[in-house]
């Protein structure tokens, strides 16, 4: 099995340390081009490409075409480098198998089938509830137009390396989580992604849509947040009305097969 860059590796050389920075930058910011990595790390593109070649050979990163949401411009899509499962395992996913085994036991103990899925979903909602309460306190006095950024900051503090930015269509924002500590478990149990999406919707006061998840094989977990009524054009405001907080949890299938 290839050896991934790790802060605990013995006798870290300068070269190894720089490769670790390259891998960590991809983890924190998502799939990146060589030019983006060079700019973030204050390195030359030639140096970045040399380290990427090594990381490719070790199975830590893989090349992909950059995923484009909305209308694609002319020309070939930029080639980006994303972490492989092995690359992510080098960081903090040591307990994924234990978590997956526990959820599988919960599903079987509940009777399997639909009852088992419901039991896992109930666990997933309970798991995120404590974090949801903390996030709610953080967002309590934040203006609606700033909530996505505030939520991204709170998620980053919990290890999700999150950012918020305008969506390509300018019709809302994208909340991007560049790291997921339970990605492998969520691949087997998408209820974890669904519970998280429900929390985002409640915290932000609007329906949100998961466009991509790391668990589904995408480089970044991407959630689309439409403009709030106060931000949208008056004639479009009714399309973005905040959901009734007393409504039952959404039945979103986010994480199962994102568009």
Helix-residue proportion:
40-55%
Extract low-pLDDT stretches: 1-12, 234-259
Widest β-sheet, arrangement of strands: 3-4-6-5
Strand and helix order? HHHEEHHHHEEHHEE
Number of strands: 6
Strand content: 5-15%
CA-based gyration radius: 20 Å
Our count of helices gives 9
Euclidean distance between termini CA atoms: 32 Å
CA-based shape:
globular
Give me the secondary-structure category.
alpha+beta
Largest sheet: 4 strands, antiparallel
Tell me, rounded to a whole number, the average pLDDT.
80
Provide keyphrases for this structure.
two-stranded antiparallel ribbon, 44% helix, 259 residues, 4-stranded antiparallel sheet, 9 helices, disordered N terminus, single chain, disordered C terminus, alpha+beta
What's this, in brief?
The chain is of the alpha+beta class and 259 residues long.
Fold topology:
Blueprint: H1 14-29, H2 34-41, H3 45-57, E1 61-65, E2 79-83, H4 85-89, H5 96-109, H6 113-139, H7 147-157, E3 162-166, E4 172-177, H8 183-188, H9 191-204, E5 209-212, E6 221-226
Antiparallel strand pairs: 1-2, 3-4, 4-6, 5-6
Helix pairs in contact: 1-3, 2-3, 5-6, 6-9
Structure overview:
The chain has helices at 14-29, 34-41, 45-57, 85-89, 96-109, 113-139, 147-157, 183-188, 191-204; strands at 61-65, 79-83, 162-166, 172-177, 209-212, 221-226. It has 259 residues and is α+β, with helices and mostly antiparallel strands. The strands form 2 sheets. A 4-stranded antiparallel sheet has the order 3-4-6-5, covered by helices on one side. The protein has a two-stranded antiparallel ribbon with strand order 1-2. Strand 3 (162-166) and strand 4 form a beta hairpin. The longest helix has 27 residues, at 113-139. The two termini are 32 Å apart.
């Amino acid at each position: 099995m290839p050896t991934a860059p790790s802060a605990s590796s013995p006798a870290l050389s300068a070269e190894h340390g720089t490769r670790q920075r390259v891998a960590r930058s991809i983890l924190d910011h998502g799939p990146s081009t060589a030019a983006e990595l060079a700019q973030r790390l204050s390195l030359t593109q030639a140096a970045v490409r040399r380290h990427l070649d090594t990381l490719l050979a070790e199975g830590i990163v893989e090349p992909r075409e950059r995923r484009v949401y909305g209308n694609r411009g002319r020309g070939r899509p930029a080639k980006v480098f994303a972490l492989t499962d092995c690359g992510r395992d080098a960081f903090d996913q040591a307990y994924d198998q234990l978590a997956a085994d526990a959820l599988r036991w919960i599903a079987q103990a509940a009777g399997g089938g639909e009852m088992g899925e419901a039991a896992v979903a109930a666990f997933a909602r309970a798991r995120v509830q404590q974090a949801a309460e903390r996030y709610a306190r953080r967002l309590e006095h934040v203006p609606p137009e700033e909530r996505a950024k505030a939520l991204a900051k709170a998620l980053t503090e919990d290890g999700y390396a999150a950012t918020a930015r305008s969506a390509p269509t300018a019709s809302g924002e994208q909340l991007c989580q560049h790291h997921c500590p339970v990605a492998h478990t969520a691949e087997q149990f998408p209820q974890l992604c669904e519970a998280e999406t429900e929390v985002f919707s409640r915290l932000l006061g609007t329906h949100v849509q998961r466009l991509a998840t790391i668990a589904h094989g995408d480089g970044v977990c991407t959630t689309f947040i439409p403009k709030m009524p106060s931000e949208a054009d008056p004639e479009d405001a009714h399309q973005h009305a905040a959901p009734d907080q007393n409504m039952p949890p959404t039945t979103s299938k986010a994480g199962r097969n994102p568009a």
